[in-house]
Write a structure and sequence with these properties.
Length: 483
């Protein structure tokens, strides 16, 4: 029998924040620099070793961005505010000469960090150096010894290295045959992880000549696995906006033969499909499905304006992007209009749930960790995601009609499509009540629906056996209903 205890806690008051401490290497003594009222998000040492630059807040609020950038004096813990970026930011760093602080920040008040900013400690001004030159989101960056910046940038399905001067001028670009991830650089040598849709991640090295070679073989067994190289295509959406997408055609595909098609929608909405391994897509293609992965409006990698096109329009024009793309593939003679499926996770799960409330064209839907009741989700989701959703949709306290209008639950009685719902029991991003709510509605109206709960799992499924189970159930559902 478990021992009873009084472990009640007051939300937003009984919160224990991590604090910043330093340890003397010789004596092993630890000294706190900040107290627990501060929530420290990240930190970096200044080149002189006397200061630490941190991003922190002493009054975190669920629906607001309250982080600021401070300097902390190592000797006595004295904190000095440097600046407060207008919206979300991250990846703070400092130039080799200690005169400039850099960070990836948002253009305006959100929705997510996108551009590279430089803040001069001498005159107190911040400059966005990539908005007008690159206008693509930075994944990561490093300062180089000569004061220039090496940045890894998402550009649609690919990633590109840019060498930038401090005024934002592009001095060099490097685009390789594999898509880079983590990287380090020293003088003329660049070491990075690289992968593609059909090549597993390995370490690659590039020298000053721009050539690359693979220097690891951790995943060489993948070389014997037959994978489908996607076709990257562009189509016009309903309003003329260009949408880029990946199309995986099964090895059995022959010109003029229509195939069952599954549309997979990425999470976010500020996510992106890229030239990387897609487990759902590859497994479905191996089972004879054509797989359509569109980077609908709201995706990153196509400029800031494209990323924010679905603000206060979830399930609107982005849903039409999906349907227009499916119709395009039907006109090309690839997709069978009578064998269509849709699936996704998180925002993709939302779109998979939303789509079947708006049309009866889909024969199967797989909805992972969806939002189905946007007002309920807003009030119960993790604080870390709440400000992001506020930027996109406002709050249900002021815009309840919009939240109701764009919730799949509002139209659940329209659903006829067999629907599989998958959810982690401990999900705090899109809490499990979203899945229970939608499943109960589907069953009430006689829809063929299954709801699978994964114990101990959060928003993403981590345990190996659970991940295998997700893939098996997803494949079986589409094969049963859409093939």
């Amino acid at each position: 029998m478990k021992k009873e205890k009084n472990d009640a806690r007051v939300i937003d008051k009984d919160r224990r924040n991590s604090h910043l401490s330093v340890m003397d290497i010789e004596t092993r003594k630890i000294r706190k620099l900040t107290d627990e009222k501060w929530r420290i998000s990240s930190f970096i040492w200044a080149p002189d070793g006397k200061q630490i630059i941190i991003s922190a807040t002493d009054h975190p609020q669920p629906e607001l961005f309250t982080e600021k950038i401070y300097s902390v004096t190592v000797q006595n813990g004295e904190m000095k505010k440097i600046m407060q970026p207008e919206g979300p930011f991250g990846s703070i760093n400092i130039s080799p000469d200690g005169k400039t602080i850099s960070f990836i920040g948002s253009r305006g008040d959100g929705p997510t960090s996108h551009d590279l900013y430089l803040f001069s400690l001498s005159d107190g001004t911040a400059r966005n150096i990539t908005a007008s030159t690159i206008d693509r989101p930075l994944n990561s960056y490093i300062w180089q010894e000569n004061g220039s910046i090496l940045a890894l940038v998402t550009n649609g399905f690919t990633r590109t290295f840019y060498s930038l001067s401090q005024d934002g001028r592009v001095e060099d670009q490097k685009k390789f045959k594999v898509q880079p991830g983590s990287f380090v650089a020293s003088r003329d040598i660049l070491l990075f992880t690289g992968e593609t849709s059909v090549q597993a991640p390995e370490l690659w090295i590039s020298t000053g000549e721009g050539k690359i070679r693979k220097v690891s073989h951790f995943n060489e067994k993948w070389d014997d696995v037959d994978l489908i190289n996607p076709e990257i295509l562009t189509y016009k959406s309903f309003d003329g906006v260009d949408i880029e997408a990946a199309l995986l055609k099964p090895a059995s595909y022959r010109e003029g033969k229509r195939m069952p098609l599954v549309a997979l929608i990425h999470g976010g909405p500020t996510g992106v499909w890229s030239d990387r391994f897609n487990s759902w897509g590859q497994l479905l293609a191996a089972r004879g499905f054509a797989v359509f992965c569109p980077n609908i409006r709201g995706s990153i990698g196509y400029g800031y304006e494209f990323m924010v096109m679905n603000r206060k329009d979830w399930g609107g024009a982005d849903y039409k992007d999906v349907m227009t793309g499916i119709d395009y593939l039907i006109r090309r003679g690839i997709a069978d209009p009578d064998r269509l499926g849709i699936g996704g996770w998180s925002y993709g799960g939302y779109m998979a749930a939303w789509a079947v409330t708006q049309t009866k064209r889909f024969k199967a839907s797989v909805s992972g960790a969806p939002m189905t009741d946007l007002a309920l989700e807003y009030g119960a989701e993790s604080n870390s995601i709440n400000a992001y959703d506020t930027w996109f949709m406002g709050t249900p306290y002021e815009n309840l009609d919009l939240f109701i209008e764009r919730s799949p639950m509002s139209y659940v009685k329209n659903v006829k499509t067999p629907t599989l719902i998958l959810c982690g029991e401990n999900d705090v991003t899109d809490p499990i009540a979203q899945c229970y709510q939608f499943h109960r509605g589907l069953k009430r109206y006689g829809v063929d629906a299954e709801f699978v709960v994964y114990p101990r799992e959060g928003h993403g499924i981590r345990e190996e056996k659970h991940r295998v189970d997700v893939l098996k159930r997803m494949i079986d559902w589409f094969e049963k209903h859409a093939k």
